[in-house]
TrEMBL record, chain A:
Keywords associated with the record: Cell membrane, Membrane, Transmembrane, Transmembrane helix, Transport
One GO term of the biological process aspect: transmembrane transport
Entry-linked PANTHER family: DIPEPTIDE TRANSPORT SYSTEM PERMEASE PROTEIN DPPB-RELATED (PTHR43163)
Protein name, per record: Peptide/nickel transport system permease protein
CC per GO annotation: plasma membrane
From TrEMBL, chain B:
Solute-binding protein family domain: residues covered: 85-445
PANTHER family named among the record's database cross-references: OLIGOPEPTIDE-BINDING PROTEIN APPA, PERIPLASMIC BINDING COMPONENT OF ABC TRANSPORTER
GO MF term list: peptide transmembrane transporter activity
Keyword Signal attached: yes
The species this protein was found in: Nonomuraea polychroma
Protein name: Peptide/nickel transport system substrate-binding protein
Gene Ontology cellular component annotations, sorted alphabetically: ATP-binding cassette (ABC) transporter complex; periplasmic space
Tagged with keyword Plastid: no
Region forming the signal peptide: 1-27
Taxonomic lineage: Bacteria, Bacillati, Actinomycetota, Actinomycetes, Streptosporangiales
Entry's Gene Ontology BP terms: peptide transport
Keywords: Signal, Transport
Pfam families linked to this entry: SBP_bac_5
Family: Belongs to the bacterial solute-binding protein 5 family.
């Protein structure tokens, strides 16, 4: 197990380094640079000569030296300064991260809850129209644009019914609508995979054996089928993490939340390279970490995988 | 049914949360007492469209930045937004020598920055040294509103004198703009990155920073000991409001919906198509003029197609600005009648020269040798009459405007290629007349120098010209001390720019705000940034 963990961690570090290098190179290849974008802004009204002077001031040494310096910075936690706002990137991340973490984790939990309810009720139900209706819910959910859903929820619950404020209000109140907005599309793939794998497990020969022993429907579903159906679902749930981040860009903009999504959007707009690089590496780190956790959980949940590990 | 227990719990929690939320919102809209006597206290919730960026003062042109800096800094002088006259503020009086190369300001006594340091002659001198000369060491760029600056001289604690290499008649107005906000020496000693951050901007204004959540919210608190408003302001002493909450709300319909549903008191950037909704709900629309170079298309003579003045004039004649305004905008956006707004200093009415005349446009293009091809697009020597333009992020409905103009031009056989506003490509291509033949933009400043900012080859240079005559005219304008002569020069420049087909003015761009009926005393500076100092709420 220790060796397995070590080798997986090593792989994770390698993936991170590759993500850093690839995005560093790609960002260098983009047309223009953040200094140009910033100082060429007509609001500043600088002459071409002044812009050239500022660029010369900011320009680093050789490309390789720059790369190594930035890499060293990332390893030691120094992520440089945002060119757009002048704040250290680490500060921006420290402010934005908890905001997104709250949103994403609450939305993830709600999404799992919705998915489990849909899949379980559909599998448990004997009424075929209800089952059909429930199983078609995920396809509806996944095709709802987060943008549209967010606006709709705000219009109905905040502006018309005046139930939750979008402006002001406590942290909890401010979370309700964005969490719903983000959870709905994410619940869809989880619900689909869960429902499908429950069906597959039901088809396996051990189920009639348990039923023959006199177990109730609920007992069979909960104690035996669901336990076995959870593995593929877990993989999908891990993968939806990427969607959580992508969805939060839209959700945070609609709801005016200052999270990673908004930060990324603005950094891209201003071509704020240090911020963009940090966000890419952060996203990669989260992704790698979630997959690492999923991989480590697998053998614990399914003893058969232990031997392979 | 134990599976639904978590669901039930969640639903109940949500309902409880919702009920709890109900309590706050229901303040009755009844008019208690008379609504005309200002009252102290309360918080103004103001929704911004975009988050502020770098708050280094000369960068205050960006509206979200100006909206904050205008509350926390004071200026040497005050420009009356109606008459555009320059009045005393921190400077009680001033003398300007005949050729406008020396300005002496006498300062008000007892003004302090919010860090306790005095706003005296040496502080003012330090401010303008930075704005006039920049600071390479601290990476501070110079400010656009100061021309020909040489040095400052502290005559005594209450008197400061500025020297200029050449006449600088625009300087007096320059001391009244938001970018000339005075900050403490501590702020000035910081490098550029630090001066970008709001927490480091220490001014002497009626509000100070209380709390900031970057990209989301800025809370300003009234300074209780504030006692140096412009003498011409009716209101004196501390601001009426206790607090201003500036909350970034990027979504247009969330901003307007929040205003109308009572969650916000005032919003910036009401889109033209939302104005009616706001008015119908009994709310106020403030469409504040920006009094500068109009929203328009600026044509670049360095482009190989546009180097022909006939082509430029053809596009000018073939653009129907009125249709743009009627289709996309409202009465808040007057159709342009010159390069400058009709409220700008030195404006001349050129509506005749700018009349829509598609026949003349076609004739000019024929004359220039551009013949229609099979696809309806004109061509000459195998080159199609196709021109590139970027969607301009800061301009309202820029994409829609350009699309409409593209339709008008298509009728002439001209293809307008509209590119999305991607900052990177734009930064590179916008300085390339071949790739970006046309620029969509405007600039607001209530001084004659605004036209120089827009067109001079050493300033914004929107048309990327090498027209020596234009540069010379602009330099003469900015160095002309006599007002009448200066306005005449501005008129000459407007005529010249239109004659040369450098500009296709579309409309006079306002800043459009919406406010609840209980928000009183709403005021703006000369180019439409809000001033919350005398704002009060009629019912709490």
């Amino acid at each position: 197990m220790t060796r397995y963990l070590l080798s997986r961690t090593g792989q994770a570090a390698l993936v991170l380094w590759a993500a850093f290098t690839a995005s560093y190179v790609l960002l260098q290849l983009l047309p223009g640079d953040s200094i140009l974008i910033k100082f060429q802004n007509p609001e500043l009204g600088l002459s071409p000569q002044q812009i050239a002077e500022i660029r010369a001031y900011y320009a680093g040494g050789s490309p390789i030296g720059d790369y190594l310096r930035t890499l060293f910075g990332f390893v030691t936690g120094g992520l440089g300064y945002s060119i757009d706002t002048g704040t250290p990137v680490i500060e921006r991340l420290a402010e934005a991260l908890p905001e997104t973490a709250r949103l994403a984790s609450a939305a993830f939990l709600l999404a799992v809850l919705i998915a489990v309810v849909i899949a379980f009720v559909a599998s448990y139900s004997r009424t075929s129209w209800l089952r059909g209706a429930l199983l078609s819910v995920p396809s509806v959910f996944i095709s709802v644009p987060a943008f549209w859903l967010g606006i709709l929820l705000i219009q109905v619950f905040s502006f018309r019914l005046k139930l939750v404020p979008v402006i002001g209000g406590g942290e909890l109140q401010q979370l309700i609508l964005p969490v719903l907005t983000l959870a709905v599309p994410i619940s869809a793939p989880i619900a689909q995979v869960l429902a499908r794998s429950i069906d597959q497990v039901y088809a396996q020969p051990f189920v009639p054996v348990i039923e023959a022993k006199g177990a109730t429907r609920w007992w069979v579903l909960w104690r035996h089928v669901a336990r076995n159906a959870v593995l593929p679902t877990l993989t999908v749930a891990g993968l939806t993490f990427g969607e959580l981040i992508a969805g939060s860009v839209v959700t945070e903009t609609v709801f005016g939340r200052a999270g990673i999504g908004r930060l990324t959007e603005q950094a891209v707009n201003a071509q704020d390279t240090p911020v963009m690089l940090a966000v890419v590496v952060l996203a990669a780190a989260v992704f790698v970490l979630v997959n690492l956790v999923v991989d480590v959980l697998f053998p614990i949940l399914d003893p058969r995988l232990k031997a392979a590990a | 049914m134990s599976p639904s227990r978590p669901l039930l719990t969640a639903v109940m929690l949500t309902v409880v949360g919702l009920l709890g939320a109900c309590g706050g919102g229901g303040a009755a809209e009844t008019a208690a007492g008379d609504g005309n006597k200002p009252v102290y206290g309360g918080t103004l919730t103001y929704l911004e469209h975009q988050p502020p960026t770098c708050l280094y003062l000369p960068a205050a042109g960006f509206y979200p930045n100006g909206g904050i800096l205008n509350q926390i800094t004071d200026k040497l002088t005050w420009q009356d937004p109606e008459t555009l006259k320059i009045e005393p503020w921190i400077a009680t009086k001033w003398e300007i020598n005949e050729d406008a190369t020396e300005y002496t300001f006498h300062l008000r006594d007892g003004v302090t920055f919010s860090d306790g340091s005095p706003l005296d002659a040496s502080a003012v001198a330090a401010n303008f040294n930075v704005y006039g000369l920049g600071d390479p060491e601290l990476k501070l760029p110079v400010a656009e509103f100061v021309n020909n600056y040489e040095r400052s001289e502290v005559v005594d604690a209450k008197t400061v004198k500025f020297h200029f290499e050449k006449p600088s008649p625009g300087f007096l107005q320059g001391t009244s703009v938001i970018g000339a906000g005075l900050v403490s020496k501590k702020t000035l000693s910081l490098p550029y990155e630090q001066q970008c951050q709001l927490k480091n901007i220490i001014g002497s204004g009626p509000f100070t920073l209380k709390n900031q959540i970057v990209d989301k919210e800025v809370d300003l608190a009234a300074r209780k000991d504030y006692n140096w408003a412009p003498p011409s302001s009716q209101h004196q002493g501390r601001a009426y409001l206790d607090e201003v909450k500036i909350i970034v709300t990027p979504e247009d319909n969330v901003r307007v919906g929040a205003l109308i549903s009572g969650q916000a008191d005032m919003v910036r950037y009401v889109q033209a198509y939302d104005e009616k909704t706001v008015k119908d709900a009994g709310f106020q629309i403030y469409a504040e003029p920006t009094r500068g170079v109009n929203n328009g298309l600026y044509l670049r003579p360095a482009n190989s197609i546009l180097k022909d003045v006939d082509v430029r004039r053809a596009l000018q004649a073939g653009t129907n600005a009125k249709e743009v305004v009627d289709t996309l905008f409202t009465a808040s956006y007057p159709v342009a009648t010159s390069v400058l707004s009709h409220l700008a200093q030195g404006y001349v009415d050129l509506s005749k020269e700018l009349a829509y005349d598609p026949d003349q446009a076609n004739a000019l293009l024929d004359k220039a040798g551009w013949a229609r091809g099979a696809d309806g697009i004109r061509a000459k020597d195998g080159v199609r009459l196709q021109l590139g333009v970027f969607v301009s992020g800061p301009q309202p409905l820029s994409k829609q405007t350009l699309e409409l103009v593209a339709q008008q031009w298509a009728k002439l056989g001209v293809k307008l290629e509209i590119r999305p506003a991607d900052a990177g490509t734009q930064a590179v291509d916008i300085k390339n007349a071949e790739k970006t033949a046309i620029q969509h933009g405007m600039v607001g400043r209530a001084d004659q120098d605004v036209i120089k900012s827009h067109f001079h080859s050493q300033n914004r240079d929107v048309i990327l010209h090498e027209d020596e005559k234009l540069d010379r005219l602009l330099e003469e304008e900015s160095a002309e001390p006599a007002v009448a002569a200066r306005n005449a020069k501005v008129a000459e420049i407007q005529r010249y720019v239109i004659e040369q087909g450098y500009a296709i003015p579309l409309f006079e761009e306002p800043q459009v705000y919406g406010a609840a009926p209980h928000v009183k005393g709403v005021a703006f500076e000369a180019v439409a940034r809000p001033w919350f100092y005398s704002v009060w709420k009629s019912q709490q």
